[in-house]
Amino acid sequence: MKDIKEGTLYNWEINGISILDPYALSYTDNDIIENKKSIVLARIGTETKHILVPKKDMMIYEAHIGLFTKSPSSNTLNRATYSAFEEKIPYLKELGINVVEFLPIFEWDDYTGNLDRESFFLKNVWGYNPINFFALTKKYSSSNDKNSADEIKEFKKLLSFLHKNGIEVILDVVYNHTAEGGSGGKVYNFKAMDENTFYTKSKNNIFVNFSGCGNTLNCNHKVVKDMIIQSLLYWYLETGVDGFRFDLAPVLGRDSNSQWANHSLLHELIEHPILSHAKLIAESWDLGGYFVGAMPSGWSEWNGAYRDTVRQFIRGDFNQVPELIKRIFGSVDIFHANKNGYQSSINFICCHDGFTMWDLVSYNLKHNLLNGENNQDGENNNHSYNHGEEGLTHNAQIISLRKQQIKNMLLILYISQGIPMLLMGDEMGRTQLGNNNAYCQDNATTWVDWDRKKEFEDVFLLLKI
After folding, report:
1. Active site residue 31
2. Which of 3, 74, 89, 341 is 20 to 30 A from 313 (CA-CA)?
3. Where are the alpha helices (H) located in 389-442, listed in sequence order?
4. Which of 154, 247, 286, 427 is catalytic?
């Protein structure tokens, strides 16, 4: 269509159903997704250049843009925004971080259907529930104009400042499912367009669910594959991000029959003339299997074996030394077929999904009642140990031992061959009070409490050495 002015609000209509443009770069800011409109935008390109931190030098910091500065203790001007994160760049530099990995920032559906103890609906704050793969969320924008695309300018400014300070940006991307769910789920765009093209279905026409969220994107259908590649090219070339961490990456390697063998899209990305230059990181498992070490050569992978081994060793589990030695020396037994060798291994002990490091040494059990699922959600096998008392304690000896165990874990992480990743706030003893699945907690449970930095100054100093 010609002569449509920038800023025009629109939606598509298919068979009488109004849907959001799945290729829109921005939507209006409405609490109810069905009320959102797509916004016509001109593509303006990036104002920054990739800085290419060598893999051997990478130090990743996994961060949630909103939760990082949501607490009043952050002392930022516009808390929980792109601009507020920018204010914390000096802190990241002081910590020695040269790569930040942002939790999802594609626009998402934050509805969970769960109620808190006061019967208020809990919102999905993590963002692993996309409605589009091109539109940047307005949830972290400091602009009050709900019908503008100011969030894109603000995000690009953040990227520019991060790059100027020698820090790469990796996006956690969710191409394994959408917020439309399965049969009976919502209709935002893809179902109305052609659900049999965009989603994988069984022979009985049932939505396949390797994501655990009701549907699975049909990633190796040409239409879907092209959409994903165009999305990645947009973020890489036009916003300037440096790489991507793929949530439930095996979904991208499954064919239309759900078989994980061909993994053609995973191959195409690592061989792509442009995207092969981006940092490509896989979470190498989904509900259908565990494939760490089986990604096409050239990919980096979250190393779940590293996480579990370090946790078990620190807890004092029997006969963990031989396994720990393998993990410290780059998990060659896992990544021997990858041309990057031990640099294929993303070593981590904690991430957004699970206990924080302080909770790992403070709780034997998960405490997820506030999530509204009767404590049935979240991982049960955490390899954690509370060191004498469950959770909060005033016992100075226990507190001292917990801090020492954190130092021990961080020391192992930093001396191990591979690429280390630190969860935001672990360097200052961030706690979620035993909640190991806090995806729906946008409150002090998940906000980084910057006042704890003073109490954990010795841990912070250890990481600066």
Report:
1. no
2. 341
3. 396-415
4. 247
